[in-house]
Specification:
This protein has 733 residues and is α/β, with parallel strands linked by helices. It has a domain of 314 residues: Response regulator (Rossmann fold, 3-Layer(aba) Sandwich). 32% of the residues lie in helices and 12% in strands. Helix 17 packs across helix 19 and helix 20 packs parallel to helix 22. The chain starts with 27 loop residues before the first helix and ends in an 18-residue tail after the last helix.
Length: 733
């Protein structure tokens, strides 16, 4: 395969003469001020419009603008009728529809399927500013507004629903979102390469239904083209009772050179964009079991999920096809990752880095969280089974250059209102995967592993974090930069491979506490999550404490855990609770598993089978915590210290035959009786918690602890004389 065409090498569309807009227009008045009579592309989004590269509508909008197209934004429209979708007029090329930076169902509902009380992507955090399954609803309104305009859907909501998928909120298998939205094309993964290609081709007169060769897209096809493609059937790969003869095994990995025969890349070398395909049949499409089949057969659903996840490497992935009702959903191979130069250019487009002026002084919580942060990379090769990042952004890390990152830090310093000298984060999906890559391009292009670091770190993976140390040192010494914090998720099993990195991080880039996610302590759940054993956490903790002590700092690790993950039994949660108590840790915020569409863990939840292994009708069925009661019990173990959970835990422990953990001794998990009032023990715990909170407050703000401030204040005040409300009575003789 030839290297992908640079997305900034296309001949620009004629409308480039208008130049970049201060912000992309949201009203006809703004269009008039820019001299536009129409928009070439209109992006409809479920998020408020923030002109910042961390927000999808701004990034894609500015990218299309750089190609010469006029782009308008319709943000959080009233979806109850078509009027709001006609506010900018008819687009010349297409509507681009997205639910926003988050899946609309996860945005609206908690893990217990209860409505959330706020929305971080709406002004003032107001809830209910978008409909359920926003992409579908918005697409229908766009079609009602202008029937002949192509509708292209994308973003994480559409990306994770490109095929038949289990939907947690309706508890059933749903069709591809492409079918339900009645859209013309679905974009999955990072869509820059695909969206630029299709915009130029549509502007040159091609029709949307004739464009079928763009990677990272899905569309409706009547049948497999007989002359160009060879169809193979996947249904006999894992299912022992299938009668369909197999023609080709899509799990076959072509023979490659051994690692020792390869010339390894330099540790600090930039990652090339060219991915060379092994010598194999490229015009092959894999026929997945149909929608009706996977809807009724859990074994075949798990099998289809397994095939899908093993066909996500852009170096060797094949096209997929699935019959859904009267439609054939065709999914092309994933997009080729952007080169470092391309990614630099995308992030250095002329963003205003502020919310659209129409929001005036309203606060946007999501913007407040990221306005002083800088994204340095994309992708994640961790492959955690419950996470959607790998399915969406891919396993190959896409890196920005050090110079580009430094330039953005300087923009944050110079252009962002309210900047006080602290960069809140240098990161991405994972904080410490920047510039990590496979040492062999050939091995990388043919690899079928779901994770580069599970069950162990691949020997072909370059794990050197020295370049990241240099980046940290350079950014924190820039004029006007007082501190650079690291707030993105950290892979501690990678961090310990470079102790110097841990020392640099702990000494200079931790703001009092560091959040990491071991997720669990027990081997059973961790193997289903594709996470390392708790020993890796202990190793990182030892380094963290060692280097904190050397730096003369009192800093804390805040571990995150998850309950009700498939494969997690109530005994596993009990053991986790005992570990928490032994380590004197009381979690305030805990995470209950949410089955996001198309994740491996969601397949486990729906089918009870493990798609990380070969699937057959006789595959062992794992335990899955279903229903409100089971999920509540598992979550209660994470908060064993909360008196409100004690009645539930007492009953659970008795049912498990572990009444020995109920009592008032230090080795007991929960007390024997329920407190009737706040006793001295609870008061003492409250004092300790307040003292710890004050200590953390001091580390972040530099102010003295509240109890110290109050004591000094009281020391300077004279005690007031008590008033006597009763007159003194004469003593009796």
């Amino acid at each position: 395969m030839q290297p992908a065409k640079d997305i900034f090498s296309y001949r620009k569309y004629w409308a480039e003469c208008f130049g970049p807009a201060p912000v992309l227009p949201m009203t006809r008045r703004e269009m008039d001020a820019l001299g536009w009579d129409s928009c070439d592309v209109i992006i409809v989004t479920g998020d408020a419009y923030i002109d910042h590269p961390s927000f999808g509508m701004a990034l894609i909008g500015r990218l299309l603008e750089s190609q010469g197209f006029r782009v308008g934004i319709i943000a959080q429209p009233d979806w109850r009728n078509k009027d709001a979708f006609m506010s900018l007029g008819k687009p010349n090329l297409f509507f681009g529809v997205t639910a926003g930076n988050m899946d609309s169902m996860i945005n609206r509902y908690t893990a217990d399927r209860k409505l959330r009380s706020d929305d971080a992507y709406s002004p003032e955090g107001a809830p209910n500013q978008r409909p359920e399954r926003s992409t579908i609803v918005y697409s229908h309104r766009c079609r009602e507004a202008y029937r002949d305009v192509p509708i292209l859907i994308g973003g994480i909501e559409a990306s994770l629903r490109r095929l038949a998928h289990y939907d947690y909120w309706s508890d059933k298998v749903r069709r591809s979102m492409l079918v339900d939205a009645k859209a013309d094309m679905l974009f999955f993964g990072n869509a820059e390469r695909a969206i630029v290609n299709i915009a130029h081709r549509l502007s040159q007169g091609e029709t949307i239904h004739d464009i079928t060769d763009i990677r990272g897209t899905a569309f409706i096809r009547q049948q497999v083209p007989e002359d160009d493609w060879r169809e193979i059937d996947s249904s006999s790969l894992d299912v022992v009772y299938s009668a369909t003869p197999i023609k080709h095994n899509p799990y076959d990995t072509p023979k490659t050179e051994t690692c020792s025969a390869q010339q390894p890349l330099a540790a600090n070398a930039a990652k090339p964009v060219a991915i060379q395909l092994p010598n194999q049949d490229r015009n092959v499409v894999i026929r997945l079991p149909s929608f009706d089949t996977v809807k009724s057969d859990n074994t075949l659903y798990a099998h289809a999920s397994r095939v899908f996840h093993r066909e996500t490497n852009p170096g060797n992935a094949k096209a997929l096809i699935q019959h859904q009702g009267q439609h054939e959903v065709w999914v092309n191979p994933p997009p080729i990752p952007l080169s470092t130069e391309e990614l630099d250019n995308v992030y250095e487009l002329p963003y205003s880095r502020k919310p659209h002026p129409q929001y005036q002084n309203k606060k946007l919580p999501a913007y407040e969280m990221i306005r002083f942060s800088v994204n340095i990379m994309r992708g994640c090769f961790g492959g955690c089974s419950f996470c959607s990042i790998t399915e969406h952004e891919g396993r190959i890390i896409q890196n920005r250059s050090e110079d580009s990152i430094v330039r953005e830090v300087e923009k944050v310093r110079d252009l962002t209102p309210g900047f006080t000298g602290t960069i809140s984060d240098l990161g991405g999906p994972t904080a410490n995967m920047w510039r990590m890559h496979c040492n062999s391009e050939v091995i990388e292009a043919s690899c079928k592993r779901l994770s580069c670091i599970f069950p162990s770190i691949c020997k072909n993976l370059n794990t050197d974090q020295t370049p990241l140390i240099h980046l940290y040192r350079r950014t924190r010494t820039l004029p006007g930069i007082k501190k650079v914090l690291i707030a993105s998720g950290l892979r501690y099993d990678l961090a310990v491979k470079t102790p110097e990195y841990v020392k640099e991080l702990v000494t200079h880039h931790v703001g009092g506490y560091l959040k990491i996610a071991p997720e669990h302590t027990e081997a059973g759940p961790l193997s289903k999550m594709m996470k390392p054993g708790i020993g890796a956490y202990d190793e990182f903790k030892a380094l963290f404490e060692k280097y904190s002590k050397q730096a003369g700092k009192e800093q804390y690790l805040i571990p995150y855990f998850i309950s009700a993950h498939p494969g997690t039994t109530v005994e596993d949660m009990m053991n986790l609770a005992l570990w928490l108590k032994r380590n004197n840790f009381q979690a305030d915020q805990v995470q209950n598993f949410i089955p996001s569409p198309m994740a491996n863990a969601s397949t486990m939840y729906h089918t009870g089978k493990n798609p990380l292994r070969r699937i057959t009708a006789r595959s062992d069925k794992m335990f899955v915590a279903r229903g409100e009661k089971q999920r509540r019990i598992q979550k209660a173990f994470l908060r064993y210290h909360d008196p409100d959970n004690w009645p539930l835990l007492r009953k659970a422990l008795k049912d498990m035959g572990r009444s020995d953990l109920i009592g008032n001794g230090k080795n007991h998990l929960i007390p024997l009786t329920q407190p009737t009032k706040v006793d001295a023990r609870v008061k003492d715990a409250d004092k300790i918690n307040k003292r710890n909170a004050n200590r953390l407050l001091t580390q972040h703000t530099g102010l003295p602890p509240m109890h110290e401030a109050n004591s000094k204040k009281n020391a300077n005040c004279k005690p007031k004389r008590k008033k006597s409300w009763a007159k003194a009575k004469p003593k009796k003789k």
